[in-house]
Amino acid sequence: MADSAADMEAHGSSSAAQTAKDLFSGAAGGIAQVLIGQPFDIVKVRLQTSQAYPSALAAATSIYRHEGALAFYKGTLTPLLGIGACVSIQFGAFHAARRWLEQRKSGGTGTARLGYGEYYAAGAFAGVANSVLSGPIEHVRIRLQTQPHGAARLYGGPLDCVRKLCAGAGGGAGGVARGLYRGEAVTLLREAQAYGMWFLAFEWLINSDAARNGIERKDVASWKVAFYGGLAGEALWLGSYPFDVIKSKMQTDGFGAEQRYKTMRDCFAQTWRAEGMRGFWKGIGPTLLRAMPVSAGTFAVVEMTMRAIN
Question: For the whole model, what pTM was predicted?
Answer without folding.
Answer: 0.81
